[in-house]
Amino acid sequence: MTTFHLKAGLLVIAGTVLNLFGTPVLAAEIITLTQTPCQFVETEGGDLGFKSQASADCESINAKTATERLAKAKVLRLKPGEYVFRVTNKNVPYDLGFWIREHDYNWLNPLHKATKTSVSGGGLAPGTTKDYKVTLKPGEYLYSCPLNPTPNYRIVVEG
User: Domain limits at 142?
Assistant: First the structure.
């Protein structure tokens, strides 16, 4: 092993990471999501063609359509582990974000901030992609974009 590999401590081979002792450690799985106005495309089975110039447009669209859309939306079923949610802003003319959290997370509860999973971030400009890394344990989670507003889509982690 070269000095570089010894210093780095990790060697990546075909998606698997080997530590210095040769023990395989799985790399984080990547979940790719695309945001168009008012929705996540993959979750809803395609681009529904909504038009939005501001978040208020999505609030109005969701008030009329979210219940029916969520009934048809794909529930992500995952195993516990490390994930990277790779989110792209496609054709939304304003900055977006991403928020994944445990289904009963309350951002006003200081205890939840310390004990429950919540990963979020903004600054997802039109045409850009960002990664959001999270460790998921067994349970239920929601993900959405409060800036685009989208419905709260479900993730079930079994294992």
Answer: 27-157
Find the angle CA(23)-CA(28)-CA(31) to the nearest 5 degrees: 155
Name residue 10's beta-bridge partners: 19
- SS3 (DSSP) at 86: strand
Element (H, E) at 129: strand 129-136
What is the count of structural domains for the chain?
A: 1
CATH of the domain at 105: 2.60.40.420
Give average pLDDT by consecutive 10-residue segment, the chain, 159 residues: 38 42 64 98 97 97 97 97 97 96 90 90 96 97 97 95
pTM of the full predicted structure? 0.81
For residue 134, tell me if it sits in a domain.
yes
